C-alpha cells in the first residue's frame, strides 16, 4: 500500500504543478467554511484524479476525501487531501502538498505526502520506517532531531478559519512562545508533520484538523521516531481536537508544556 500511496501522490502532485501554471483564478476559487477558507477547481479536480487512480489500483477500497467526503466501505480506507495548504497554493507560496494515506480500523498503515513545489515525496509504512525521495530521485531515511530541551525546540503550528478558535489559538501561542526557541506557521499541516520527521522543526501541534490533514503525515512522523498525539480517526474540524507530534527527546517535557497552557483541551468551533 505504501507503493500505491507514493505513486498516486506523485501523479497528483505533477497534476497540481501543471494546473497551477494554467489555472484561471477569476473563475477557479470559491469558499467553504468561511470567506477565508478557499477551495479551487484544482482541489476538486485533483481529488477526482486520486479517486480514479485508487479505484484502478485498489478496486473496492473505501475513500475519504476532503472535498467529496466518504465513498465505499471496506477494511482499507484511503484518506486523501488533494491540496493541503490551499491558501499557499492560491498565493503562490511554495508550501502545499498532496496527502494520501491507507488506514485499517482507523489506524494509518501506509502513507505519502508529496511536497508539490519542491518535488519531494515523503512516505512511510507501519514498522518499515520513513523516507523522503528528493527531486533528483535520491531517497534517504528520516529521523527526528536529537533535541532534548524544549527551550531549544522549533515548533510548527497552524490556525483555524473560525475567528473564535483563532482567538484561543493566538492565546496559546502567546503562552508558548517565551518557552521555546521559536514558532513557525508554514500553512500545511501535512508538511509540518513531515518537518518533524526530517528535523526541520522539533514539534508540531494544531487544533481542529480533519483526518485528511494528518493521516499520512502522522505516520511519517511516527516512523521517524516522533511521539504523536492523535484526535481519533473520525474527528472532524468542528470538534477542535488536538494533534501533536514531538521529537522523542522533548516529548514528555513538551507534552507537559501543552498541558500547562491548556492546549490539550479541544477548541470547538
Question: What does this protein structure show overall?
Answer:
The protein has 269 residues and is of the alpha+beta class. The protein has 2 domains: 1-141, Fructose-1,6-Bisphosphatase, Chain A, domain 1, CATH 3.30.540; 150-261, D-Maltodextrin-Binding Protein, domain 2, CATH 3.40.190.80. The protein contains 7 helices and 15 strands. Strands 4-3-5-6-7-8-9-10 form an 8-stranded mixed beta sheet, sandwiched between helices. Helix 1 runs antiparallel to helix 2 and helix 5 (189-198) packs parallel to helix 6 (211-223). The two termini are 35 Å apart.
List descriptors.
single chain; 269 residues; alpha+beta; Fructose-1,6-Bisphosphatase, Chain A, domain 1; D-Maltodextrin-Binding Protein, domain 2; 2 domains; eight-stranded mixed β-sheet; five-stranded mixed β-sheet; globular
Walk me through the topology.
Layout: H1 2-22, E1 29-31, E2 38-40, H2 41-57, E3 62-65, E4 69-71, E5 76-84, H3 86-91, E6 97-104, E7 107-115, E8 120-125, E9 130-133, E10 139-141, E11 154-157, H4 163-176, E12 182-184, H5 189-198, E13 203-207, H6 211-223, E14 227-229, E15 242-246, H7 251-260
Parallel strand pairs: 3-5, 11-12, 11-13
Antiparallel strand pairs: 1-2, 3-4, 5-6, 6-7, 7-8, 8-9, 9-10, 13-15, 14-15
Helix pairs in contact: 1-2, 5-6
